[in-house]
Design goal:
Length: about 325
């Protein structure tokens, strides 16, 4: 029996809550100044069940990060503002892009994730509720948005639009994937990938009012995209999972996740890891990285050693570790 199984299980939501409630709170005066400056953003912190001063501090830290690298962090503020409103009307927004990695990393590494994560210029979402696009459109119209989500011309199960909450005068691009049927199965279609709805197990972070794509489905999505950035997101998310499990989170361990992937996803991830994996001989790495190089090497090795057993011999590449 490992040490994780001896601990009382907790949730990612509880860990995120503890991270935020460890911050120094903003004073009432500081909060009022921020509400005057950006009321649509700071109304987000005026909710039941949260420590308003500390949640406001968290939001202000993200604002400061955005000032250092304009265009990289305000989309997550848009997400925070709109997601609880959609949920209140029985809709659903599940984070599926890079912000999914960020929120796992914040739960694991705390405020340093705000300082060191790369950021993203857009918001990728999915929903299992067919009513969500209409609900979202009504909310955005009520809040004064001038451009509402529209069905994508190139994709028959996606809506595209803009969110305009996080930073005055700025808008972040949003893509929302909605359910589509293949035969008798409802799922989410992204490029050539089809994920049945009943395979999804979203992770709720009630304290922030958002839902995350579970790590297994997220890995499938990223392995299918197969870019260097996608491999980095997988590795960093795996690093976050290990920390969360050490903290007692009831979340699937990395090896079990890897072993449960479909053969074609295992092969895609194996190839990504060969091409983009961090190797022991690759130098010291950047000193400002959130996940240190040694951890990345260990995770890439674990991916290699776990997957290679299921890779056909003709597809195998001489291990580089």
């Amino acid at each position: 029996m490992n040490s994780h199984s001896l601990r009382t299980p907790t949730t990612v939501n509880q860990i995120v809550k503890s991270r935020i409630e460890a911050l120094a709170p903003l004073t009432d005066g500081e909060i009022l100044k921020r509400i005057d400056r950006n009321p649509r953003l700071y109304e987000y912190v005026l909710r039941d069940g949260v420590d308003i001063g500390r949640l406001a501090r968290f939001i202000s830290m993200i604002e400061e990060r955005e000032k250092k690298n304009p265009g990289s962090f305000f989309p997550v503020l848009d997400l925070f503002c709109v997601s609880p409103k959609v949920a209140e009307r029985q809709g659903e927004l599940i984070v599926m892009g890079g912000w999914n990695s960020f929120l796992f990393l914040f739960a694991s590494y705390g405020p340093s994730a705000i300082d060191k994560w790369r950021g993203s210029h857009d918001v990728d979402l999915l929903t299992r509720e067919r009513s969500t696009p209409k609900i979202l459109g009504r909310i955005l119209e009520e809040d004064g948005h001038t451009i509402l989500p529209e069905p994508s011309i190139a994709h028959d199960a996606k809506y595209s639009g803009f969110l305009e909450y996080g930073s005055p005068g700025k808008s972040s691009q949003m893509d929302l994937y909605v359910p589509i049927a293949r035969g008798n199965v409802l799922g989410i279609s992204i490029e050539d990938l089809f994920i049945p709805l009943d395979s999804m197990k979203p992770i709720q972070i009630e304290y922030l009012g958002v839902s995350l794509t579970d790590p297994k489905v997220y890995t499938i999505m990223k392995a299918s995209a197969a870019r260097r950035r996608d491999h980095e997101d997988i590795v960093e998310t795996f690093a976050a999972i290990k920390i969360l499990r050490e903290a007692g989170a009831d979340i699937l361990e990395v090896q079990e996740l890897l072993e449960g992937l479909a053969p074609e996803i295992k092969l895609a991830l194996y190839r990504m890891n060969v091409e983009f994996g961090v190797k022991p001989t690759a130098g010291l790495g950047r000193t400002d990285e959130l996940v240190d190089r040694e951890t990345k090497v260990r995770i890439c090795q674990e991916i290699e050693m776990t997957l290679i057993r299921s890779i056909p011999p003709k597809e195998r590449i001489v291990p580089y570790f």
